[in-house]
Write a structure and sequence with these properties.
The complex is a heterodimer of chains A (303) and B (325). Chain A is of the alpha/beta class. Chain A contains 13 helices and 11 strands. In chain A, the strands form 3 sheets. In chain A, strands 7, 8, 9, 10 and 11 form a 5-stranded mixed β-sheet that branches. With 325 residues, chain B is mainly alpha-helical. Helix content of chain B is 76%, strand content 1%. Chain B is built from 13 helices and 2 strands; from the N terminus they run H-E-E-H-H-H-H-H-H-H-H-H-H-H-H. Chain B is globular. The chains are: A alpha/beta (303), B mainly alpha (325).
Chain lengths: 303, 325
Amino acid sequence: MKNPKRMQLWSPTRYLAFVLTAFLLGFSLAVFAAPVSVADDRGVTVVFDQAPQRIVSLLPSITESVCALGKCSALVGVDRFSNWPKSIQELPKLGGMGDINIERIVQLKPDVVLLEKASPVIARLNGLGIKTFALDVKSMNDERRALQKLDVVLGTSESARVWNQIEKEIMRASKQLPSKEKNISVYFEVNPAPFAAGGTSFIGEILTQLNLVNIIPESLGPFPKMNPEFVVQAKPDVILLTESTAVDIQKRPGWNSIPAVHKKRICAFTGDQNDVLVRPGPRMGEAALLISQCVQEKMSSSR
Amino acid sequence: MQKNYFLGKVSGLLILSALLVLLGTLLGSMGASWNISAADQTVLFDIRLPRSLGAYLAGALLGLAGGIAQSLFRNPLADPYLLGSASGALLGVGSILCFAYLGNAWLEIIGLNGGAFLGALMGVLASLLLAGGYSNSLRLLLSGVVISVILGAANSLFTFIRPDLFQSIQSFMLGNTSLLNWPGVTIMIIALALCLVITLLISPVLDALSLGENTARTLGLPLDQLRLIFIGILALATGCAVAQTGLVAFVGLAAPHLVRKFSGGRQRIQLLFSCLGGGILLLSSDLLARTLFAPIEIPVGVVTAVLGGLYLLILLRRTPLGVRS
């Protein structure tokens, strides 16, 4: 005995409709699953339908972070100062701080432009319909957060590995300094004006992690312009600065009385080394190694 | 009687200056230290004393230059940076920062201070050349403006090519008294003595000029030659000050106004007082700049601009625009 009703239920039309619904449902599910929305450091939520395939980065430390996460190949353009890793050197350079080449960026049709929070081109790019993702990296924690956010944006899952690598290198750098060398007081000059690296800057944080005593108190903020007399009175054991200012530091009034100066414990970093030191990016571990290596060298050679 | 008043005023200003210098050696990055014998001798005599003296001398040079500029161009808004010296000095500093780094031995010998000095002189010379001489004040002023704009643009190009120099150049633009040393002080003492003596000797011509150019000519004075000497002093004084402290704003403009009331209209006394007033203004600004948020420093140019600006504002409110009288 056949049940006519059941026959009707599984008629070819019904079957087709079922398959079609299932297909549509599955497709729309796929569509709904892919978009990710991430809040950038301005607090603006940026929605990505799929992981961006064409990326422009307008800050060297962000460029380095993108590459560290393994998305170097997705970069289609960078700012003039981005110079690491070597593989990005062939990419179009889109200008520097005050002269970002908007036209060129539009021509490159990027899926997202990664830039600094205070960048003046954000509004212009948004007006032209280009997605921007702003980051604000000043401390080590900022960089950790930036790596995590970039992971979500780029659809990668490398941030934990990159961060562990940084921490491991800092640990190694810290171990390199023998215990008798600990609690050495240091002065890190960012700029001959003189601006110093304060305790709350990422450089200051690295110094702290190396158990070096920064003569600049934490309360003075990240990069204070110091009274040079303060440095003379603080008598740092080692001074860290760039090659170009290392010569005239001896000519500064009274600076010959600083132990670091008359014992020649001055770490003068080259331009390339300086790039590593002053960028709050994935090479912070390398920066820590540079610092600990030089401090150890200077301390042992002057004894 | 007049003479006694003059002596009284001069000694008053000098005593104030000496007190400020003394205060300058006591106030340090850690606040005041009244116990001189206990303090570090290097700190006192190699850092604070040359810094205080240097700030005073630079202010005096700028005050003198400002006084000369205002009398020479008969314009109360004239300042020592008028004839392209400021942008020239800036360009000098910019080029040294830019090219000495590339390893040019000559530029390293000249150094930042030398670069600023040469640049300032070059700016003034360029203005003179553009004006086709020094006999027409208005032409000279206008060419000073033109040269300033052109050299300023060249300097912007430097900061554009090498943005890492931006902060160093900016600290020069805002004035920087923190790295003054004994050689700098010595140079400024010599320059100030030279400029002051010549100025006081030939200042009567400014009295004549204040009656108008044509009247001055009828008095039979060698007007053009004397004017050239004044321009020379203006350039030398400004160049020396700028080379040591950077472009401190407003001192040269405000100092002559600060002392105008005391001088009673005579140019010789006015210039001398401008000189002392400039020194006092810059040194007190330096004291504020280094103590307000110690051990962080505020750029000294910010303080001079606020102090001098406030004073001029009060002056403007009190007197109807006849500042020159």
